[in-house]
Every structure is written in structure tokens, then in C-alpha cells.
Amino acid sequence: MHRLRRLAAPAAILVVAAGLRLWGVRWGLPAGQEIASYHPDETVNLVNGVLDRGVLRPHLDIGFYNYGSLYFLLWQVAAAVNRAYGVVRVGGSAPIGEPDRTTTVAALLLVGRLLSVTASVLTVAVLMALGRRLYSRAAGLAAGAICAVAPVAVVNAHYATVDATATLLITTTLLAAAFLLSHPNLRLAAVAGALAGLAAATRYNAAIVLCAVVAACWQARAPWRAVFARAGTAVVAAGMGFVAGCPGVVLNWSKFRGDVLFEASKSAAGMGNLFRDTGPGWLYHTTVSLRYGLALPLLLLVGSGLVHALVRRERPSLVLLAFVAPYYAVIAMAEVRFLRYVLPLVPPLALLAGRFVAGTGDERPGRSRATAAAFAVVAMMTLLISGAMSASMARPDARDLARDYLRRALPPGATIAFATTPAYYSPRLLPEFGAPTPGSVRRRLILTAGSPWTLRLPAEGTEWDLAVLAPPEPDVVVLSDAETQEVERLRDPRALEFLERVRARYRPRVFESVPSIFGLSLGKPRWLPNDWLYTQPRVTVYEFRK
């Protein structure tokens, strides 16, 4: 009975974690003849990383190395198993040939998402074990609860992307480093290094977790020769783990090298207006990525845990910080600053916060009770925020609502204008809107597809083309805040002129997805980080004032 009571708390945390991640997991899946979800990367990942020339079959050289290939190889295996046993069945279009409900685009994407859900829930379990190993059972439970409800962890578990799996492998590497800290030997060093290599084979910058493994070797207080032997073993094992998880580095070196260099150059150059003039990267990721990714109450708690760790400088905390500090520095130096980049930081930061909450045993009783009460309040507030975000993903998306309205309201032949080439942020009026292709190719696909309406798109290679508003004026203009918020922030003259003309001549009808739960709406700020707009879009249909 005592053992069952001890298992109740971690079991409850895992149930909450799984519930939040499974709630709304079918968000934005393509239906009917649609070919893409509302996440801009998922279908690209499926086509390039899982399918082989449009067919589901195993292949080690995926020919797509913008990310490491381990997650995609796991996705291939999971999709093949699902095709054999038919657990996940979703109707819709198939990549090639007659649709099989286990191999439709929607079914394959859902399999990839369920992999992310599994990885994210396992991360919570591994984190609780890590907390118990490094500090105490209470610290592990607190860290697990934080990770279970953190919005960035909950939302990204809904996506068929590499992030949740990479975070699991990073956390597992930290657990191996914790064992290495207390039982330093070559075997554990090899295991920890191999796990770090597998993490890097999922997302390249996850290789930074090897710093924590080396720090554990150094913190173990052994003779220098033994320290170097263990650290060297970990580095060699990391290389072997990387090749095992990303065999393309050997099988297709030229493509691997080209894709990695492309991602590196994009990270250094930025992505147009998206992150332009957003200040220093370290400040942006604190005030935006972590602010929204954790929500303000949890960010304050995590900040307190970080300060506590820096002041006390305990050996276990230094191992965690050996990953946190260099990883944060690397993402801060990049010009591309997606919110999901901070996801791997959530487990170690949650554990530092858990250590702060659990205390060291020498605090005054009043302080311990106050800290525990504050933690309970923060956890419940964050649970409501993440619950509201998952609930919003389970409801009809704003793009679907706008699409249904346009189909009802517009007669055949009506003219619909767009400021940019329609993409994931646009109502799905045509399947081609979600085509996983560059914008110029997608534009040609849209213009050559059969449509009951006249679609006016900006001239090739342009955006905010005033010509789409020329007489005879279009019946409606469709805009998304994914298009407008950055140009308005930067005060782009051409875009502002376009918006001024539209707002002067057209009447707005707004459709938006706002997080809410139990009838309580969290509202939506005027500006949100781009990642959050995937699930919280605002689509405005401007109708001509006749």
C-alpha cells in the first residue's frame, strides 16, 4: 500500500501530461483532398523525411538533412507498424495511389504526432527520475509537474516535428550524466555520450548536451587521467551515436553537408521580416520565447530556481547549467528565433525550479510552506493556460470557419484578393494552398488549379501588391495576422498603404482562435510569436462596401 501511495503522485503527473498532449492532437489535419496540415513544417517533414518518392517504405538515406534523421526513421517504423495493424485510420487523400485509411496524409501525420506525444510524456517520466537522482523525490515531482504543464512542451507535443523527440533524448542524456556523476566509469561515459549523439542525430544543436556529460566527468573528482579518459570515451561514443541515428552523414555526405550549410546560413541571415529588429537574441528568448513558452507565472518560478542554482553552485546543478548556458548562448546568437528553440531548456530549468521548491532541508518551516503554496498556485495557473491552448486546438480552427463562411457567402465567379501567396495561414479554399513547396511553385499551382472564384494574387516575387486591389475591386480581401503583424510592427510603407486602402473601402469580418477553457477566455494579444500563430490565428475577411 505504501508503494502504491508513492506511485500515485508520479502517475497523476503523467496522466495530466498525456491528457494535455492528446487533447486536440488532431488539430488542423488535412481532410478530403487537402494535402497539408496547418503546421508549416509537418507535411514537408512527411514528404521529405518519411516517404520515398511519395511511397511509404523504409529507407535510411532520407535525402533530407535540414534536421537530423532519427525522428524521421522512427516515424517510418511507426507508420509501417500502423499500416500492418491499422491502429490509426483517418480518411482523406493519399500521397500516391488509392487511399488506404492507414496511409492517408492525415493518418501519417497523426502517427508522427503520436510519436511526439509519446516522447513528450516520456520526457516528464525521465525528468522525475533525474530529479530524484540529482536532488530528491520532491524535486523530481515538482520538475515533472512543471514540464507536464509548460505550454511550450504541451503545444509542441501536438506536432509531427523533431523537437519533442530531441528534448526526450537530451533529458535522457542528462539522466545518464547524473549516474556518471555519482558512479564515474567508462561504461556510463559511453552510454551518456551515445545518447548525446542520438540527440544530435535528431536536432543538430542538441549535441551541446555533451557539455553536461563532460561536466559530469569533471565534477566526479577523479584524477585528471581518468577524467580525460571518460570524457574522451563520451565524445567518441557521441560520434558513433550520431552516425547510428543519422546514417546519411555516411550514406549521402554531399546532401547532408549541403542541407546543414543551408540551415546554418539561414540561421545566420534570418527570415525576412519575421525576426528583424527584435533586439539581442538573449533578451528576445527571455522576454518572448520563455515568456510565452512558460507563461509569466512559471517563468518567474523558473527564474527563481535559476538564481538559486547560481548562488548555491551545487555539483548536480552545475551539470545542468553546463547544458543550459551554452545552449542558450547558441540559440541567442542566431537571427532565426522560433519559440520552439527553447523547448530543450524546459526539463533542466524545470528541475532547477523543482530544487528551489523542494528546498534543501535547512529552510525555515514558514519559508517551505510559502514556497509550496506559491508552487501550487503557479502550477494550477499554468495548467489552465495549457489546458486552454489544447482545448482551442480541439475546436474548429479560425481558418476553417473563414473558409466555410466564404463558401456560403460568395457566389461562383466572385473575386478574392490576397496580399501574399496563400499558405498555411490562409483559409483552405483550395488544396494547393497547403502545398509543401516554395512560394513561387505554390503560386503557380494555385493559379492553374480549378477554382469557382477568381483569385487575385500578388505578382510573382512580390507581396502587398496594390494591383490586386485595382478596379474592378475584389469582392473580398482575405488577410491573416501571420501576414500583417510583422509588417505593422516594422511599419512597412507598402504594406501599410495596402492595409489603409483595404480598411477604408472594406468591412472586416473577423474569425479567430482564442485559447479558452470552462468558458474562461485568455484573450489574444495584438502581437504573438510566430509559433503561437499556428494554433491561434486571426483571419479577417474584408468585404467590399458597395
- State the distance separating the first and last CA atoms: 74 Å
Number of helices: 22
Q: What's the Cα radius of gyration? A: 24 Å
Beta-strand percent range: 5-15%
- What structural category arises from helix and sheet content? alpha/beta
Q: In which range does the helix fraction lie?
A: 55-70%
Strand order of the largest sheet: 4-3-5-9-6
How many strands? Answer: 9
**How many separate domains make up the residues?**
2
What would you call the shape? globular
Poorly predicted runs: none
Largest sheet: 5 strands, mixed
**Averaged pLDDT, please?**
93
Protein architecture, described:
Helix 4 runs parallel beside helix 16 (346-358) and helix 7 runs parallel beside helix 9 (210-219). Helices cover 60% and strands 6% of the residues. It is built from 22 helices and 9 strands. With 546 residues, the protein is α/β, with parallel strands linked by helices. The mean pLDDT is 93. The protein starts with a helix and ends with a strand. The longest helix has 30 residues, at 105-134. It is globular. A 5-stranded mixed beta sheet has the order 4-3-5-9-6. Strands 1-2 form a two-stranded antiparallel sheet. A two-stranded antiparallel ribbon has the order 7-8. The chain folds into 2 domains: 2-23 and 114-393, no CATH class; 398-544.
What is the secondary structure topology, with strand pairs?
Elements: H1 2-22, H2 42-50, E1 51-52, E2 55-56, H3 70-85, H4 105-134, H5 137-149, H6 151-156, H7 163-182, H8 186-200, H9 210-219, H10 224-245, H11 248-251, H12 253-269, H13 281-294, H14 296-312, H15 315-333, H16 346-358, H17 365-394, H18 398-409, E3 415-418, H19 439-448, E4 454-456, E5 476-480, H20 481-490, H21 493-505, E6 506-512, E7 516-517, E8 520-521, H22 530-533, E9 538-544
